[in-house]
Write a structure and sequence with these properties.
The protein has 138 residues and is α+β, with helices and mostly antiparallel strands. It has a single domain, classed as Cation efflux protein, cytoplasmic domain (Alpha-Beta Plaits), CATH 3.30.70.1350. Helix content is 28%, strand content 32%. Helix 3 links the parallel strand 7 and strand 8. The protein starts with a helix and ends in a 10-residue tail after the last strand.
Length: 138
């Protein structure tokens, strides 16, 4: 089989056997892809629908643009539904950032898995406002 044939192989049954991609693999790809957008990152943890902005002090996940967003994926045959929870850098446009996240996640998942992404739901749960200042030139 050539490299082109390997890249074009669909998920499912091939002449060599079955190919299945687990939801955890798609979840990991989606989370990494979302983190590639500079203005998106890990969202603050939530309890009963409320953000806990200071929860990072207690050893739980905090709002951060340097950490991976929370993701989940449902794979049904060759179709994927993805859910992401992210934070957005203040004062960036939420529609612009979520559009970029959706496009990057769709491109990465479809390219790396050959699965078709039908839907990407993005929950913006917080703004990342308390960021370390950029390093100063010396």
């Amino acid at each position: 089989m050539t490299a082109t044939a390997i890249a074009a192989s669909p998920v499912g049954r091939t002449e060599l056997g079955a190919i299945t991609i687990s939801e955890s693999v798609v979840t990991a790809i989606a989370s990494r892809a979302a983190s590639e957008i500079p203005d998106a990152g890990a969202a603050a943890p939530r309890v009963l629908g409320k953000s806990l902005p200071g929860a990072g002090l207690f050893g739980t996940r905090a709002t951060s643009l340097n950490k991976l967003p929370e993701a989940s994926a449902d794979v049904d045959g060759s179709v994927v539904l993805i859910h992401l929870s992210i934070s957005v850098r203040w004062p960036c446009s939420v529609p612009a950032v979520t559009r970029a996240v959706r496009q990057r996640v769709r491109d990465r998942v479809e390219t790396l898995t050959s699965l078709r992404v039908d839907e990407i739901n993005v929950d913006v749960t917080s703004f990342a406002t308390h960021l370390a200042p950029p390093p100063r030139a010396q």
